[in-house]
Structures are given as structure tokens and as C-alpha cells.
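tool_call: predict_structure(chain=1)
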Amino acid sequence: MYSYWIDGEPAPQGSKNGFIKNGRVVMVESSKKVKPWREAVALATQEYRASKWPNAEQWTLTTPVEIALVFHLPRPKSVMRRWPAVKPDLDKLIRSTFDGLTTGGLYTDDALVIAVSASKQYATDRIGCQVIASEVQDV
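tool_result:
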């Protein structure tokens, strides 16, 4: 089992905006927060791998994996409820995080994820995401 923390504000990967530049179609994320979040995920993943394995660049999961994600979101001052039953959507938070986990080398492709458990809550101290990944043995 692999467990580590990602610091930063989780950002949802939503739709993309397209425009034409020099005769080519260019697609850009609609949210400017997505890129920094994916970079934070990738960096935290790389640092975790390096702390656990001397040859971290060679270690990447290639077998089925189960992932648990707990997103700790900032509480807006205007919100008094206990649970963040508002945007960002959980599925979009998962999507951006999975891309960062792939870039960071946790696994070779997020198609390897066979089960996911995810939740979001308001942060009490740290903003970010707890990642727990478990390899699933094929018998």
C-alpha cells in the first residue's frame, strides 16, 4: 500500500475551450487552477516515490490498482454547512488528480485503476488530497 499527501488546492478538470491560432485548433483548460494542481500532484508523487525507492524512476505500477482519494477543500467564508455539497464536482477532481498521478509516475496509465473511492471535505488545517493506492494481484 502506498499513502501520501498532496499539498495544494484541488482543482477540477472540466471542459476545454478551443480557438484557432495560426490556422491550428488549440485546446485550453477552462480553469486556470487545473495545471498547478496537476503539477502539484505529479511533484508530490515523484517525491514520494523518490523517498521510498532509490531507483524511483524505474518504479511505476503496471498492475491493477485501487485508489482512495480524500480531498480537503478550503471552506468559503459564506458557507456554514458541514459538507462541501457544492462545486467542484468530485468526478472532475478525480479526473485532474488521476492525470497528475500518471505524470508523476504512480502508474503507467490511469486505465490500470480498477476501483476508486473518493470523498471531499472541508479542510480543518491543510488543503490538499490524501492518496492511498493499493496494488491488486492478478491470480
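agent: The chain has a mean pLDDT of 88. Proceeding to next step.
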